[in-house]
TrEMBL record:
Gene Ontology CC terms, in alphabetical order: cytosol
Organism: Anaeromyxobacter diazotrophicus
Documented EC number(s): 6.2.1.1
Domain of life: Bacteria
Residue intervals of the AMP-binding enzyme C-terminal domain: 531-609
Gene Ontology molecular function: acetate-CoA ligase activity; AMP binding; ATP binding
GO biological process: acetyl-CoA biosynthetic process from acetate
Record family assignment: Belongs to the ATP-dependent AMP-binding enzyme family.
InterPro entries the UniProt entry points to: Ac_CoA_lig (IPR011904), ACAS_N (IPR032387), AMP-bd_C (IPR025110), AMP-bd_C_sf (IPR045851), AMP-binding_CS (IPR020845), AMP-dep_synth/lig_dom (IPR000873), ANL_N_sf (IPR042099)
Domain Acetyl-coenzyme A synthetase N-terminal: 29-82
Classification via Pfam families: ACAS_N, AMP-binding, AMP-binding_C
AMP-dependent synthetase/ligase domain: residues covered: 90-473
Name assigned to this protein: Acetate--CoA ligase
Length: 632
């Protein structure tokens, strides 16, 4: 790797000789070329590194676009590759999971132990009547049992639907309803910031309105008093003691294209979309991306600080690391509890080597100053990562200098729930530019287009599209395949429209700017304005509402609401607080609005659609753009 690459413009961080010496991929350009020239050859070779009960007939069947079928005809189960195959090697005794609770309690699982508990719980689920193809909703804190529940569901061929524990009753209810789950797995509560998050109570409220649910399995985490409904609610620890919960359970053989999970994510309408990922392609995609991008090795202690309830957790806390046979680390609580050095203390104490987190966390910890990380030995770290939103160069450089001590390359990975795996991302030996996710992953090609579908010149903003299929691509939207075809593949036929605005520079590096639709990213969490608006209008005082995201120093974006009051209600600071609390109660504390403004009118098109773009421009004192369709 030449250190002086005169063609790269802007601020560039070249990989050190040490990074290059230790890297799996030294010549990324050669590999990129090879994958570009032979997409199916590249992915076929990756798939060969994993176990299949029956080999695929075809790496990629694209006869029914955009419903691409990867490894069609192949049979496997992602759990066979996450757990079963490691039992036959020395990795059986390797740590699979190291978990630390907010209070400092520690639990560790070897690959053997994790496999045993997953098998036990798989037998429990079977005894509860869960069959292949059934959906199981998981609503849990960050404890090992969430990993066990996901894997147990996959092992028996069921389809898990994890709902992030920071969501509240309406969000949970909508997701249970859409998935028609008969079983919900939860906990009495979780610890966050020294407080108990009442998960069971939220489940009780949601389930009351969901007639499909027959069984609720409750993990005891906090030990506080919760209501257990006879005949419906069971303690996890009681079930795991039953003779039927044996440590042996065959792993269901799945078709490559059979669904592994559904994960609800916000879109342009109020109804979240159930993004479906399948066993085979998804498995190969996340295995290869984690291997190449975070260069995971047996010596590593890898920490993805996300929550398993989001796609980042699905792909890169739970499945990816286990596919790679890695040791994965998980921490239950808040980064600042009890002090802002908690994360750095964890890195030192557990000798963590890879840290993958979101820009909002970095900005949040940056505020407390360098003295907190500087009190700790962070020398075990060798790679850092970022995900969820664009990282501002200032935060990138702080992360690089203060946490990585200038030694650790930062993998800024751009991807989505829908893509399942990293799409635009560096590998450790690539020259890095702060704020750019660099280039498409091996085999992928991206492009920036204008409204008419013409590529915009380098340096100009446009719509980000992906040109080639990839194995972890979503297989469908649950119960609504048409919506997938329409939403992602119709704007530019044959190309995947990501919903993001971006630029490309002269070096072919991509700079993601943000969403072009009604999705906002708050602290990296993906939220839909429509879902928030519907929570707002469920408040008795609110007649109409519009929600936009505005820049926020730490959160990236914050939720700003504009509400039209019903007759008889007057604006007041008390009402503003009440409305904010209403949203938090219904959707979750992470969805609490930053600001609620009461207005007399909302800007609308003549056909009655709220023009959020205009609200956004006004709030920021920017030109309103084309307002020719604006109603008088
Ligand atoms: C944004 C999260 C810039 C983007 C994995 C995308 C990013 C949305 C990055 C998907 C990044 C994610 N740089 N923006 N490295 N990573 N995004 O589905 O707007 O929660 O469309 O998946 O997050 O959010 P999701």
């Amino acid at each position: 790797m030449s250190e002086q690459r005169p063609t790269f413009e802007g601020e560039v961080f070249y990989p050190s000789a040490e990074v290059v010496a230790g890297a799996r991929v030294k010549d990324w350009e050669a590999l990129a070329r090879r994958a570009a020239n032979d997409l199916t050859g590249f992915w076929g070779a990756e798939a060969e590194e994993l176990e299949w009960t029956r080999k695929w007939d075809k790496v990629l069947d694209d006869s029914d676009k955009p419903f691409f079928k990867w490894f069609a005809g192949g049979q496997t189960n992602i759990v066979q590759n996450c757990l079963d195959r490691h039992q036959r090697t020395w990795r059986k005794n390797k740590l699979s999971l190291v978990w630390v609770g907010e209070k400092g309690d520690v639990r560790t699982y070897s690959y053997f132990a994790l496999n045993r508990d997953v098998s036990k719980f798989a037998n429990v689920l079977k005894a509860m009547g869960v069959r292949r193809g059934d959906r199981v909703t998981i609503y849990m804190p960050r404890v090992p049992e969430i990993v066990i529940a996901m894997l147990a569901s996959a092992k028996i061929g069921a389809v898990h639907s994890v709902v992030y524990g920071g969501f509240s009753v309406d969000a949970l209810q909508g997701r249970i309803e859409d998935s028609e789950s008969r079983v919900v797995i939860t906990a009495d509560g979780g610890f966050m910031n020294g407080k108990v998050v009442e998960l069971k109570r939220t489940v009780d409220d949601a389930v009351r309105r969901c007639p499909t649910v027959e069984t609720v399995i409750v993990v005891q985490r906090t030990g506080h008093e919760v209501k257990m409904e006879a005949g419906r609610d069971y303690w996890y620890h009681d079930l795991m003691k039953l003779p039927l919960a044996s440590g042996h359970c065959p792993t269901e053989v799945m078709e490559s294209t059979d669904p592994l999970y559904v994960l609800y994510t916000s879109g342009t309408t109020g109804k979240p979309k159930g993004i479906v990922h399948a066993h085979g392609g998804y498995m190969v995609g996340i295995y290869a991306t984690l291997k190449y991008v975070f260069d995971v090795k047996d010596e590593d202690r890898y920490w993805c600080a996300a929550d398993p309830g989001w796609v980042t957790g699905h792909s890169y806390i739970v499945y990816g690391p286990l596919l790679c046979g890695a040791t994965t680390f998980m921490y239950e609580g808040a980064p600042t509890y009890p002090y802002p050095n908690r994360w750095w203390h964890l890195v030192e104490k557990y000798g963590l080597t890879i840290l993958y987190t979101a820009p909002t966390a970095i900005r949040g910890l940056m505020r407390f100053g360098e003295s907190w990380p500087n009190r700790h030995d962070l020398s075990t770290l060798r790679l850092l990562g970022s995900v969820g939103e664009p990282i501002n160069p200032e935060a990138w450089k702080w992360y690089h200098r203060v946490i990585g001590k200038g030694r650790c390359p930062i993998m800024d990975t751009w991807w989505q729930t829908e893509t399942g795996m990293f799409m635009i991302t560096p590998v450790p030996t690539m020259p890095l530019k702060p704020g750019s996710a660099t280039r498409p992953f091996f085999g992928q090609e991206a492009e920036i287009l204008d409204d008419a579908g013409k590529p915009v010149p380098d340096g100009e903003e446009g719509y980000l599209v992906l040109k080639r299929p990839w194995p972890a691509m979503m297989s469908t939207i649950y119960k609504d395949p048409e919506r997938m075809a329409k939403q992602y593949w119709s704007k530019y036929p044959g190309k995947y429209t990501a919903g993001d605005a971006a630029k490309r520079d002269k070096d072919g590096y991509f700079w993601v700017i943000g969403r072009t639709d009604d999705v906002i990213k708050v602290s990296g969490y993906r939220l839909g304005t429509a879902e928030i608006e519907s929570a707002l209008v469920s408040h008795p005082a609110v007649a109409e509402a519009a929600v936009i995201g505005l820049p926020h120093e730490v959160k990236g974006q914050a939720i700003h609401c504009y509400c039209l009051l019903r007759q008889g209600f007057k604006p007041s600071p008390e009402l503003e607080d009440e409305v904010k609390q209403h949203v938090a109660t219904h959707l979750g504390p992470i969805v609490r609005p930053e600001k609620v403004t009461f207005v007399d009118a909302l800007p609308k098109t003549r056909s009655g659609k709220i023009m959020r773009r205009v609200l956004k421009a006004r709030a920021q004192g920017l030109p309103e753009g084309d307002v020719s369709t604006l109603e008088e």
